[in-house]
Specification:
homotetramer, alpha/beta, Aspartate Aminotransferase, domain 1, Aspartate Aminotransferase, domain 2, 2 domains, 7-stranded mixed sheet, 4-stranded antiparallel sheet, 14 helices, globular
């Protein structure tokens, strides 16, 4: 079977694994107060050119999103998100379980716009409504798209206009920052977002996400909140070791670039055979529209997920590449169509 | 000023007030464990022909909705509601503050259909999604419409198919049950819904709602939940006294019928003058579409709220009648248009 | 039966009832934005000599405590309270249901001391513990005792030392401020507490409590929080009308003084007969220790509650007087012992 | 520096690390639905002789405790625990953040007794109180003690009497089951507890705990709850791989036995020098009472934590051994005293 189902089905990238093995018998203080975490945090601050940023390492995306968002909000505050946002659909109501409503916004392709923000704000006028306080976007999105720098700046402006904070879910930040159409660099992020995370789980780590808090007013007591939500790993050192290994020497971006390159080859091959995409391919998640018979046949040879777009004759599917996808898998896939 | 802004701007209907005055110096046990509450509860069980129903009296609608819904659900359960539902927009996220997501459904006019339920269920397939467990509808709705018996039975069937519970917000049940197009009676409700409430605040009481739990599996320990959410009034007797006064001798339905009759006269007069409605008038909330200039002029003589439907030339407004609306107010209004 | 069971088993004081009757058919805007509430709030600001205080009217004590405390705290913050505090035992975990731990402190007689605060703070050292952020006291306490001005100032000092807020539950403030040993006046409260409430339910109102927020940093968006927790009464005017009637012409303090006077007569009579008290009588809750046979016999003629203090031969009971207790009830009781 | 500070400051036991390395490039489905997790779960069911048990793998102890306990309870339910319980003090209010009160019980040495349960139950009589629904114990406890089989059976009996569930935190189960005074085996646990967890983090794993649900009524939808609380690791396979490696060939118990053996040598040496213990040494956490000068001197050569027991002349400290503690560390320590 060719595997194009997701980007979290291998263990860790060999560099990360080696680092874990090498440091395994080194004694380190618990709960992230160790030299590995301090080193990784320092490196991140350097990478994003934001010496005052607070860095917290957590184990997964849902945990990071719910911990950060709930920490930033008072009980009546809500979160504005595209209704395809990971927090809206794929986190089993983790956000609501912390007490907060998400204002779901219907978007065309999963990207939030300043107009969307205006629309939500205009209909939330007084204390009978929740008070939107933060926007949630992911880069790249669950639809495989990225935000350009101009788009992010426009969102920031909308946030400032409405006294809103801005949070970026970077589960696939490695792919976002290495997409062909991308014009963002690490250093731009803390200038635009109040908080964001650099995703490890889908970008080469065994597990782990690095939450970065830029806005000073959001920093206080964050370790209490991480602990309370179950995210303060006893052997926090494991996260420091991994991010250190991942981020140094640009490994992180190389892994992202590889996943994108594989997806790009795949997309080009699919286009060349005359098929279309329901969402334009931009990163490592692509969404070709195949005749139903072909989709059914592929399912016997390839592991992938279907996408909820279907016509009388065609079915959209989701193909995902990762740092571990090999070129011959792409070639084999293309032979099948 | 003519007052057509809402149905909760007077105190209590005189019958209710008299009952409160008469019983004021009678000693009664606290927290709803008194003869007045027992009598009112018995009367409700008789009225709805459901001797096994549990009755709890609470002080307001938001409180009743959040207390009941949260009591019925486990943390991963969600609630399906039309996106115009009171719990979706006008309760400041009270439901989410108890930890539960609401699956907002876009509807044409504020009424939920079996198809809406099917659509939600099909997209909630496994543990990465919340698990819908109950539907929330209001009768009459926030758009002034009612559900027919057939519509409710169809919803019930959809609920059974999907292992869902059914809850009816009866904030304006008096108006629903006395609408011209209505074919429901009190006795139908416990046969269809797992729980519902008979609204007092908007139907003649000073304050108060009577929550009725029909489904045995939802009854356990409900008084704990009411107390925990702040809804167990120390002088619970006040609620028993009011519902006793309201419900006996059909006062409740007469008050609803009066509000509807006033709205009906209003709607007929408006139609006679050639204006249209954005939602067909059915109960005591009606939504005429007026030229903008007329709407602006009316605002100087009439208290009402605008409705978020607007064209280049016209603006919809919401007119509300109540048990206290007098016929001459209607006549005066009609003179103005 | 003589009734000495609690102070919330009558309706409203006649002055309050009259005011409700008189204003019943006056139209008023909903949710506390009406002339009655504005007037009552202004009067309270005058009474406490704190022109900048924010006033919110809620329907009951549990609701007020949970709404206020949860509004003031971030998720990792806890509340320090005597373990006899109303929020600790008699509110069905309402506080915890909003997500916050209460640090229960074992005290001798239900009053919190600066030393208690120090002890809690010393054992909460880092992010593995909750972070205490506010102290909860009630005046008078659930044990019928009051805090002197000096005691409150000492608590305030301890709070300042530890960066803690201070909240006073005034469910029985009328009795506290009129106890013989009291040296506090309304004007002292906003100088000492960050927030407190003037209790209506147990002090002459039909229902209702007036929450007063003094500390500017706690005021923002409070109406959202009140609405979200189900405490924003549609006919908020009812609360304004009641507090206006209660507070003007010193009615409130007279009602408290009456309850205390009745309790005082009761206590003197009991002492005269040679019985002791497990807690020294100070306000309208007194706790005599009676031989078990006497306690049993009394139970057939008097409504009261037992108190969890019992020896081989004796049983403590709780006797409560209210604004409605009549002198002949006291005399009859004393004849029985 | 000799390290006797805790049992989570190394990485993984070499067997576990090897297994992670060997399986690193094997593709596996996400979120614990993979062959490694299935194999580990099967093995656990075999080990505890409970073929119907449900097994869930989570990443840490706080996360496991809060996820399990909150999943088992309705909002008004509380948890009975010794006030030294991990959930009471060292989890930053994680339990309360899910909405539940913990009934803290003062115990002499951190172990809960049937009498403690009776005492709590007698004071929680009606809906004004939370309703205790489950007891939380840890084995071994935070004080290094274990429960004998007879003690656990007596607690079970008390639970049955009061309609309570029973949950065992097994963060250090390896040490509990290999203590000299222990008479419990794996197979006993599902016969006594409704749910428990086998701790990995402190017993040789890199990270991870295996939650075991025995009581059928608690099993439904557990994966939803784990996901919602952020505990469903994307690469769940990592947990399966680790528990497989840990549990097979009795590695788990051998690691526990080693930690205990080291602690035992330490305790004997300390006793031999004439020092006493504030809690009798039983597993890998021991609490000697040293003269203050000695404690201060040790602090310059040994990493350990102080224990909150202090006299004018003496200070208790906590010494912890682990699977990685070496005999020469013990010898060196003993030379220092």
């Amino acid at each position: 079977m060719i595997f194009l189902k997701n980007d979290y089905s291998l263990g860790a990238h060999p560099k990360v694994l080696d680092a874990l093995v090498k440091t395994n018998m080194t004694l380190a203080d618990g709960y992230g107060e160790d030299a590995f975490c301090y080193s990784a945090a320092d490196y991140i601050r350097h990478l994003i050119a934001c010496p005052a940023a607070d860095i917290h390492f957590l184990t997964g995306g849902t945990q990071t999103n719910m911990t950060a968002l709930a920490a930033f909000l008072r009980p009546h505050h809500s979160i504005i998100s595209a209704d395809t946002g990971h927090i809206c659909v794929h986190e089993t109501g983790a956000i609501e379980a912390t007490g907060h409503k998400i204002n779901h916004v219907k978007t065309r392709e999963g990207k939030l716009s300043p107009q969307d923000i205006d629309d939500v704000m205009i209909s939330h006028e007084d204390e009978h409504y929740v008070k939107p306080r933060i926007i949630y976007i992911s880069n790249s999105t669950e639809t495989g798209l990225i935000y350009t720098k101009a788009e992010l700046l426009a969102l920031r402006e909308a946030c400032d206009k409405h006294h809103l904070l801005m949070y970026i879910d970077g589960a696939r930040l490695a792919m976002a920052l290495t997409a062909q159409s991308n014009d963002l660099i690490f250093e731009d992020l803390p200038k635009i977002a109040d908080a964001f995370y650099i995703g490890g789980t889908k970008c080469g780590a065994m597990f782990g996400e690095a939450l970065i808090i830029v806005n000073d007013s959001l920093k206080e007591d964050m370790r209490f909140l991480v602990k309370q939500r179950g995210g303060l790993l006893a052997k926090g050192r494991l996260l420091g070791v991994q991010f250190d290994a991942l981020l140094k020497d640009e490994a992180y971006l190389q892994l992202g670039a590889h996943a994108n390159a594989m997806a790009s080859k795949l997309a080009e091959g699919i286009k060349a055979k005359g098929y279309e995409f329901v969402i334009p391919p931009e990163t490592n998640l692509i969404f070709p529209l195949f005749p139903k018979e072909l989709a059914a046949e592929l399912a016997t040879r390839v592991m992938f997920e279907t996408w909820p777009y279907v016509t009388d004759t065609h079915q959209a599917i989701r193909l995902v590449t990762s740092w571990g996808t090999e070129e011959n898998e792409i070639k084999e896939f293309l032979k099948l169509i």
